[in-house]
Each structure stands twice: as structure tokens, then as C-alpha cells.
Amino acid sequence: MKGQLLVVNVAVTLSLLPAFGVMGQALAQDAPVAKFRSSIDVVSVSAIVRDRKGRFVGNLERKDFIVAEAGQARPILDFRAQSDGPAKLALLFDISGSMRVGSKAVDARQAALHLFSALRPGDEAAVFSFDTRLDRVTPFTSDIASLMASLDRVEAPFGQTSLYDAVAETARAVADEGPGAGRVPQRSAVVVLTDGVDTRSRLTPEQVSTIASSIDIPVYIVAVMSLIDDPRESADGDDTPESPLSSLARLTGGELFIASAPAHASTAAREIIDELRHQYVLAFEASNRDGWRALEVRARDRALTVRARSGYSSGNTGLVGTTEGSRTDTESIAQLNIVARRQR
């Protein structure tokens, strides 16, 4: 079925038997107690596909993809190719003290203006800011003039940084804005404008990426920094070395952009919006095993690169797992994963 998420209900109950009289009562008494899964839980995952030159690849079909959970291929129950649709962004400003250095705060504001300028009618955005706490500067709106004006209400940089905690909370806020019991519409994303310095977070990058991945919200990070601090200047080739920020973005299906020159912010804004408008959405049956389930989406054509979230949360535990070796702040994870339970 194209264009709809497939959910098959197979609920079975004996509560209707009394309607059949004495025979129904006898059947009810003699029937063994059985437990059934009340429904087939379906997980949807958004995917971006590019060729070797970095161009978006369209016109792919269900048969062109492989979805593997914990290394095992899973049947794709539903498939949609989405292009040129509306985008929904949560813009997250770092207002910690380190952003006062040089032109970081100014560059972050400029990057936000580029993002707002790339929006079209029907798109929505909200503005958040954080140091050691998260503040909502303006709610989601399609009014571009209002969004641009809201930048004047973003506080001047000051204090320490809880970057990873803020990203997790913002992802939850985006999910809460989705229609119907917290279900997240496609093309939603968190865009973080930061210098990448974290001093106070309780959560690790791995834990945050797990939380965001479980609700299929990609995290895009625009790291504003001086040219001398740009890791690409000292790296061999054009690839940015793996870092906690790039790992966080990659595992959620997002990407890290380094903005050390005015043109970089403009390029990042255009690529982020373009990605949100060019997505494939694949659905498969959720695992009947509780907990975090590793996920891989790839194309059968090895020349194509697919980027998607790294996993999802299954079952009734409510807690999203963490990468092996990371330490878990149980209270924080439980609080931030309420929305993950709403997705099932």
C-alpha cells in the first residue's frame, strides 16, 4: 500500500462470546487462556540516498532497498518516495559563554538567517536556545518574518554548556509537536548552531543519538568556528575526522557541517533543507524483543550511499538502550524517552 503506513490489527477476544448465549458461556469456560499480540507494530524510517558525486538519487523503488535489523534482513511492508515536500525545523542556538569568542554568535545568527531564507510556504520552524537549560524562544510557525525577528530575543552568550542534554530535549519537543499522540511527521529535524563545546551535560553523545534515532529525528549540526580551528584544514583529504558531534549527527541520520567562512553557512542551510525535501520512507514490522534494536538501511546498488537512523526502541521497556560501553543516567534517559513509547 503506497502513501499509507500499514498497521494490521489482529486482536482476539472472548468478551463477545456471551452474545451467543449458553453455548458461548460454555466455550468461554472451556477455552484455554491464550495471549496474543494485539497488533503488528510497524516502524518507519526515513532515508536519504546520494550517488558517488553527492547528488540526490530519485526514482528508486522498494526492491532497491535492504533493511537489516541486527544484521538480519527484514521485509519492507510499505514504501514511499517523498520529494519537494514541506520541512519542519527546530533551530537550537548555543548561547553558552564559549560562543562569545570571536564572531561565533554572529556567525550562528547568519546561519539561522540562511536557513529561514531557504524555507517555503508550508514549512515551519521554531527557535530554541540553551546554555545549561533549554528555552523556547518562539514556537513553530510558518511566519518567516516572525522567525527572523525572534533572533533578536536570543540572549547574549553566557554560562556553561549542556549541549547534548539540550539536543535530546529539543528532539523530544519536535516529536511532541507532531500530529496524533506524538507521532512525528516526516521531514522534521533538529538543527544545532554551536561551537561544539560541552561542559555540563549528563547525557553522552551516544545516548542522545540513541534517543533521537528512536523517534526518527535527524540532528544536523552547524559548527561555527574560526578558520584556524577548522579540522579540515589539518586533515588529509576533504573528509572531516570523526568526532562526538559528527558521530551524533551520523547515527541519527543527520550530518555535521563546519562553518568557518560565510559561504559555508549558506551551503549548509541549502543542503539541510534539500535533504528534508528528498526522502524515502520505508516501513517494516517491529521486533517482538524489547529494547534497542540496531538498524541498517542500504541500497542494493553499492555505488549509492544511504543515510538513515541507526536503530529504534521496541517493546514495553520504555528505555532506549545505549551504545556498549557508555554510562547511562537512568533518570534522564527515562524522562527523555517518554516520547519513544508514544511512537509505537
Biggest sheet: strand arrangement: 7-6-5-8-9-10
Shape: globular
Strand content: 25-35%
The helix/strand order is HEEEEEHEEHHEHEHEHEEEEHH
**Helix coverage percent:** 25-40%
* Rg (CA only): 22 Å
Number of strands: 14
Specify the oligomeric state.
Answer: single chain
Q: Biggest sheet, open or closed, and with what strands and sense?
A: 6 strands, mixed
Uncertain segments? 1-38, 317-344
Separation of termini? 20 Å
- SS element count, helices: 9
Q: Which structural class best describes the helix and strand composition?
A: alpha/beta
Tell me the layout of helices and strands.
Elements: H1 21-30, E1 42-50, E2 65-69, E3 72-74, E4 78-83, E5 88-94, H2 104-118, E6 124-130, E7 134-141, H3 144-150, H4 163-176, E8 188-194, H5 205-214, E9 219-224, H6 244-252, E10 256-259, H7 262-277, E11 278-285, E12 291-299, E13 305-308, E14 311-314, H8 330-336, H9 338-342
Parallel strand pairs: 5-6, 5-8, 8-9, 9-10
Antiparallel strand pairs: 1-11, 1-13, 2-3, 2-12, 4-11, 6-7, 12-14
